[in-house]
Amino acid sequence: MLRKSFETSTLQNVHYMMSRKPTSLLLIAIGLATLVGCGSGTTHTAYVSLPNSNAVAALRIKTSTGSNSTSNSVQFTTIVGSPFPAGNSPASVRIHPSNHFVYVANQSENDISLFTIDSAIGSLQEVLPRTPTGLTPVSLTMDKGGNFLFALNEVSGSISVFSINSGSGGLTAVAGSPFATFVNSTAFAITPSAKFLYVLNPNLTAVFAYTINSGVLQPVAGLPVQVGNGPLAIAVDPAETFVYVANSVDNTVSVLSINSTTGALTLLGSFATGTTPSSVVALDPYLYVANLGSSNISVFTVAATTGVLTQITGSPFSAGTAPLFMVLDPNNLFIYVGSQTARSISAFSIDTSTGGLLSTSQSALVGASPSSMSVSK
Asked: How far apart are CA 377 and CA 252, in angstroms?
């Protein structure tokens, strides 16, 4: 708004300045050129779970975009007071879409921490008591409207579902929660419409599906669907057409199509990645796969109807040391990569014309090995 107001007032004064000295005209011309040519920027807060230090790191991320991806930049700043104490071994973190609350799954404590966010600086304040879950909650997900929070409990083989109080952020278990799934399930993904939930079980090398109705889960008939060996990560594309699974032992990514009516899955095929794929991010028409073993990121185009993956020119792209997870920036212009060995978060700019990645040479040390990250909109 400030930029628009400045531009309007400047243009209104050009006629007046036409009667002034040439120097004044030159200054106006330079000012307008700078205004038109300058890039735009946004600021987000981000929170990173640190299991080994029982804490959550807090970062401010300032992004600037220029005329092309090579001029995009990122600046990380540690928020005052970070890291903030959480429960025992926090494994997963999620920001509420209102940007007022943060939820953290404490896997060794079998509960969820609720934090309120200071709107001025982004610091966290925990609200006690913590909310009990099943045994070993390893992952959290949420519908995009922020109505329900889902916790995947690895050891008890269940999914805890909570309705979220929009005013306080408080959690209330929905009727029937926790819902049964198979023991040792470690990752899950919700569709953008919040109609379906897909659960990944590495021991069974399979994906299970559930319909969602006001937070209540019901198994989809005819599943599970088998995927590759050592599946570690799962994602749903924004168009809700495909599910992708990174298979760490096979060094492949499996592509499954979604029946939009029933939620049933059909395996379309598996495609070679780098070594030990550990994370997957879908951004139509591209798919990004982080390879933990080869320390790079494979980038594919996705055929809209068949789901066939084709690596783009230049793929794979170097990704520092042992990338464990990736998070997409809310503006879809950057990918943030977490490294357990480097104990850092690194930023990569996305070339929107090719899908390629360019390192911004910017990273943030978080003091301990990170396990997950959530970025505010």
From this structure: 31
Q: Determine phi and psi for 171, rounding to 5 degrees.
A: -110, 135
Domain that holds residue 12: 1-38
How many residues are given for the chain?
A: 377
pTM: 0.88
| pLDDT for position 160 | 98
If we measure between CA atoms, which residue out of 178, 245, 172, 261 comes closest to residue 208? 245
CB 112 within 8 A of CB 130: yes
Residue type, 52: N
Domain contains 8: yes
User: Which tokens sit at 96?
Assistant: 């509420």
What parts of the chain have a pLDDT lower than 70?
1-40, 67-69
Q: Residue 27 falls within a domain, yes or no?
A: yes
Give the pLDDT confidence score for residue 3 in this predicted structure: 38
Q: What is the pLDDT of residue 44?
A: 96
How many folded domains does the chain comprise?
Answer: 1
Indicate the DSSP class of residue 67. Answer: S
d(CA 245, CA 232): 7
Looking at the DSSP assignment, which residues form a beta bridge with residue 41? 64
pLDDT score for 67:
67
d(CA 235, CA 233) in angstroms, rounded, equals 7
Q: Which of 303, 307, 364 is nearest to 337 (CA)?
A: 364
Give the Cα separation of 368 and 158 in Å (integer): 29
8 Å CB contact between 338 and 367: no
Beta bridge partners of 154: none
Report yes or no on 258 lying in a domain. no
Displacement of CA 169 from its chain's centroid (Å): 20
Question: In Å, how far are 51, 64, 341, 348 from 366, measured between CA atoms?
Answer: 12, 22, 11, 17
Cis-peptide, bond into residue 285, ω within 30° of zero: yes
Question: Looking at residue 10, what is its pLDDT?
Answer: 37
Question: Does 10 reside within a domain?
Answer: yes
Find tokens 């009727």 and name the residue: 175
d(CA 135, CA 156): 5
For residue 41, the model assigns a pLDDT of 79
